[in-house]
Amino acid sequence: MRKILLSIALLAVAAFSWPGASAETLPSPRGKPILEIKGRISVVNTPEETAIFDREMLEKIGVTKVQTSTPWTDGRPVFEGVLVRDLLKQVGATGHQVTVIALNDYKATLPVSDFEKYPIILAHKMDGRLLKVRDKGPLWIIYPQDQFEELRDKSVHRKWVWQVKEMHVE
Amino acid sequence: MERDDEVMRGTAARRYWAFGAVLFTFIIVIFLSFQALFDQKRIIEQDSRVNLWFLAQTEIEYLKLMEVLTPSITKDQDLDYDRLVEQFELFWSRLPILLSGTQSERLRAVPGLTKTVGDFVLTLEELEPYLADRDKLTPERLSEVHQRLDALRSPLHELMQRGVTFDYVSTSGDRRRQEYVYYQLLSLFIGTMLGGLLLLFMLYREIVRANRAYVVARKAEREASIAKGQLVDAIASISEGFVLYDEEDRVALFNDRYKELHPPIAPIMRVGISFEDMLREAVQRGGIKIASDKAESWIAEVVAQHLNPGAPFESRLADGRWLRISERRMSNGRIVGIHTDITELKQREAELTQKTALLQATLDNIAQGVCVFDAEHRAITWNERFFNLLELPPDFPLMGVTYPEFVRRLAERGEFGEGTVDEAVASHLRFVEHALAEGGSGRMERRRPDGRVIEITVNAMPDGGFIKTYTDVTERIRAEAERANLLDQFYASQKMQAVGTLAGGIAHDFNNILGSILGYSHLALEDLPQDHPARESVEQVATAGARARNLVQQILDFSRRTETPFLPVNLTALVDEALVLMRSTIPVTIAIEKDRWDEAHVYGSATQIHQVILNLCVNAAQAIGDRPGTIRLGLELLEDAAPQLPTHAGRLADQAWSRIEEVDGRYRMSFGSLAGRRHVKLTVSDTGSGMSPTVMARMFEPFFTTKDIKGGTGLGLAAVQGILQQHRAAIVVDSAPGAGTRFEIYLPAAEGAAPADAVSVTEPSGQASERILVIDDDRTLLEMTRTTLERQGYRVTAARDPTDGVRAFAATPDEWDLVITDRTMPRMNGEDVAREILRIRPDTPVIMCTGFSDAVTEAKARSIGIRAFLMKPIVGKELLSTVRGVLDGTHRQAAE
Questions:
Q1: CA–CA separation, B301 vs B310, rounded Å?
Q2: What are the residues whose beta carbons fall under 8 Å from the beta carbon of B348, sequence distance 6 or more?
Q3: Which residues contact B35 (CB under 8 A, 6 or more apart)?
Q4: Model confidence at B174, in pLDDT bands (50, 70, 90)?
Q5: How large is the average pLDDT for residues B785-790?
Q6: Do residues B467 and B585 share a domain?
Q7: Do B100 and A72 touch (CB under 8 A)?
Q8: Bigger pLDDT: B12 or B140?
Q9: Where are the alpha helices (DSSP H) in B238-342?
Q10: DSSP assignment, residue B263?
């Protein structure tokens, strides 16, 4: 029994580590870095073993649109950004949760399972416009609460971290 | 039981499941409720905080902005442009949140907020171009920015305060909700506590109950196990065969004893075998003898009987043993069988039946009446004799009747004579109770109404009952009385015999002396001249000698030591002759009368009978005394005398007198028995003083007399008895004090007339010349006999020694005409002498002299051949006549 469990665990590790190992090394950002990822990641681009991104790099991973209402905006804006799970895959993250830190050092811990279960994005655009800091930019965690009713909850709202500057994979 | 256990266990399990489910649900509900309430609480708290937080964040961001901006104005520090722009942006990012979105919706109710914040946005929009380009941000412009931003400080702070106030007011609803939530939480907590306690209590109770039930169940199980073990042990150890069948009639349990009792099926006996198979096996193995074609039908019949068990039955096995088989259906429908070996019981039963029959037969054949009462004193068995003795009718109810009831019925029948029934019953019950208490046995005698005497014994039996035995002792009582009487008579007889022996002995010697006195006085008288002066004296001597001789004769009569020839005697003439003598002797005041006067003859001694008559008459006269009176005599020839005698006469031994009986005030007693049928009854009665029974009892004793010393010798009646006894006569005495006495004498009658005076003494006549040999050891008598004979002319040879005499005879046997020998002599007695002489010459006449004689010696002497006897003392006349008679051949005595 123990052997079986061990082999399953090894397979899981292999499954996670393989894309990281095969991906090309993360290039350094050409523009202004807007996000830094630390912790249990295998793909880095800084001497400090972190991964830093500018908007172009993020967009390059892939942009996903999510239209949803938020408790802090009127109407149903359309958000655009990279799927967090893609981003984590990009950096070869192996943790179970991610602490997201805002510009004002607000912190919220999000389970990795959330990203796998829902198309949560790290939005950099709202209604076609780039998010400025004043608009809760440059990056904003968006839960698609209109698509998933269970997400329309105050306990989830605290995980909508805006003005994201850093993510710590644990 | 197992099924009950399972049911119980199932119920308990279901209860546990239900309990578990309730507990689980409870916990879940509590958990969810708490969670929901906490969530609600947090949300409520968050809601209010979020609002205030938005404001606070705005102010913080403002202060951070100012913190970046102010040092550069005061020249304390160089401007950090990037930070400024970022802080500017951050401050700005706080403002739209206040103006839009659901989260800040309530905040927007704060008065003046929208306008103030809108103004802030306008200010920021105006200042934005100032900060757009770093190069264009001159100190003046920077200062203006600072100034413009600084102007926002107080409205922002005011707004913050308003927000706080508002929050307090606006969140009072929330607080109420919150309080409500608290109360809910509290209630829930208390509810949970109580529910938990209740659950704990229920759980505890359930555990206790389950534990108790478990303990009880375990105990019950253990007890059941022990009980079952004991039951199995008990079944295994009982002496009976045990078998238990299940619902399908298959063996479920059996013990070894069952196999022992059924050897044919023992090898196949096992749990699970059906009763029918067992039977079939038993038939096949020969355990049950039955024809093979009938086996199946028999098996079917037995199985049917087995399935509907009735009363226990007895069965005989092929090996001869008997079994009692008791089969019962139990409440659960199973059949249980008990097989008991009753072979021994059967044998005992047979033995018992036999013994009972034997006992009954024994009881019916014993002379006693027997009745057995059990421990409850109920009659259980008896014999026929019992009924006969008590003269109970055959239908007299007895079986099971209690002893008191039985006695009562007897009493009511008059069994106990006079007295009340209750007294009789009480008396008998006392007797039995006393007997049972005192050693277990008792005895009583009682006279039945019919006069018979019964002896009743009661003996306790080991079982608490008792047995009553009834014996008819009438005969025994009578026999005992008779025996006592006979004993008296025996003693009397002994006494008389003793006296007789003594007297006889003395008389014998006296006779010899008297013989000499008489003989020589007679010789002297013959020699003395008529006028001789001594003649009178010698005559007196002879007279006294004669009297003495009479006295001795009476003693000998009494003691039967005389030898008198029995001859036919004319009794009538003899009595007449005696009466003539009596008349002249007794006083004239006494009349002598004759009643019936038959002509009668008897065998006997005339002299002795004469003596009897005289004695009786003298006695009668003396009983009458001086007063006038009558003596009556009668002679009666009876063809059959028996009816005339008293009832008891003839039954008694002829050696003693009977008891004295009282009949109509008179006393009677009798003596002797009657031989033959014809008798002569001689009656002598007087009108004298009579006798009391006491005197009667002793009247025949020798030397007993009622007269004074001079009146009599006391030998008169004793002699009468002696004489009559010798004559085989019966005597009846009848007397009463003051009313006279009557003697009845029954003498055997002689057939035909007797020659008259056959025994009369013949006078010797003429001169004799025969030669006589006289042998006697007594010299005086020898000389006297020789003198007497020689005076008659006989030639006498006297021998004192018998052997000398015999020798003398043997020398010249043919010269002797007669031999006279004494009987009692030393060395050689009279019989020997006679035998010797007769051997030498068989036709020699022999006369034997003897002092006393009896029938035996007489018969013996005759068988020897002796011709005649002479009784001592020998009187001259008798001697001479006898000698003459023998010599002449006229003396026939010896020849008969």
A1: 14
A2: none
A3: none
A4: low
A5: 85
A6: no
A7: yes
A8: B140
A9: 256-261, 275-284, 295-307
A10: G
Q: How many CA atoms lie within 13 A of B502 on its CB side?
A: 8
CA distance B392 to B410: 9
Tokens (6 digits) for B84 = 């400024």
Q: How far apart are CA B325 and CA B240, in angstroms?
A: 10
Answer with the one of B184, B199, B218 that is the final residue of a domain: B184
Is A122 within 8 Å of A164 (Cβ atoms)?
Answer: yes
Q: What is the mean pLDDT of chain B?
A: 81
H-helix or E-strand spanning residue B382: strand B379-382
Interface check for A150 against chain B (CB to CB < 8 A): the answer is no
Of B420, B438, B472, the one marking the end of a domain is: B472
Residues of chain A with Cβ-Cβ distance to B39 below 8 Å are 155
Give me B717's structure tokens: 């009646």
CA distance B101 to A135: 13
Q: Could you give the number of structural domains in chain B?
A: 5
Cα–Cα dist B709/B831, whole Å: 43
| In a shared domain, residues B586 and B730 | yes
Q: Report yes or no: A152 at the B interface, CB cutoff 8 Å.
A: no
Contact residues on chain A for B43, CB-CB shorter than 8 A: 154
Indicate the length of chain A as a whole number.
170
- Whether the CB of A74 is below 8 Å from some CB of chain B: the reply is yes
CA distance B226 to B220: 10
Q: Are residues B18 and B94 in the same domain?
A: yes
The CATH number that applies at residue B289 is 3.30.450.20
Please, which residues have CB within 8 angstroms of residue B213's CB and are 6 or more apart in sequence?
B8, B12
Could A157 and B103 be called an inter-chain contact, meaning their C-beta atoms sit closer than 8 Å? Answer: yes
Whether residue B128 is contained in a domain is answered as: yes
Cα–Cα separations (whole angstroms), residue B640 to A91, B637, B644, B679, B809? 180, 9, 8, 7, 53
Quick check: A18 contacting B, CB < 8 Å? no
Distance (Å) from the C-alpha of residue A33 to the closest C-alpha of chain B? Answer: 14
d(CA B631, CA B586): 11
Closest CA to B314 of B282, B283, B346, B290: B346
Tell me the two tokens of residue B459: 């003996």
Same domain, B255 and B159: no
**Hey, is the C-beta of A163 within 8 angstroms of any chain B C-beta?**
yes
- Is B207 among the domain residues? no
- The domain containing residue B803 runs over which residues? 771-888
Same domain? B574 vs B713: yes
B217: in domain: no
List, in order of start, the domains of chain A with CATH numbers.
2-169 (3.90.420.10)
Separation between Cα atoms, residue B133 and residue B122, nearest integer Å:
19
B167 and B244 inside one domain: no
Q: Look at B61 and A72 and tell me if their CB atoms are within 8 Å.
A: no
The answer to whether the CB of A82 falls within 8 A of the CB of A57 is no
Nearest to B682 by CA among B722, B646, B731: B731
Judge whether B849 and B776 are in contact, CB under 8 Å.
yes
Say if residue B869's pLDDT is above 60: yes
In this predicted structure, the answer to whether residue A6 has a pLDDT above a threshold of 60 is no
Task: Decide: B561 and B500 in contact? Cβ < 8 Å.
Answer: yes
| Residue B559 · residue B500 · CB < 8 Å | yes
Q: What is the pLDDT of residues B292-329, one digit of tens each?
A: 788 888 888 888 888 888 888 888 877 788 888 898 88
Q: How far is it, in rounded angstroms, from Cα B590 to Cα B598?
A: 23
Q: Are B785 and B879 in contact (CB under 8 A)?
A: yes
Q: In this structure, is residue B513 part of a structural domain?
A: no
Supply B393's token pair.
């009718």
Q: How far is B74 from chain A (nearest CA, A)?
A: 25
Kindly state whether residues B728 and B806 are assigned to the same domain. Answer: no
Same domain, B289 and B362: no
> Which chain B residues contact residue A132 at CB under 8 A?
89, 93
**Residue A2: which residues within 8 A CB-CB, separation 6 or more?**
none
Longest CA–CA span in chain B (Å) reads 255
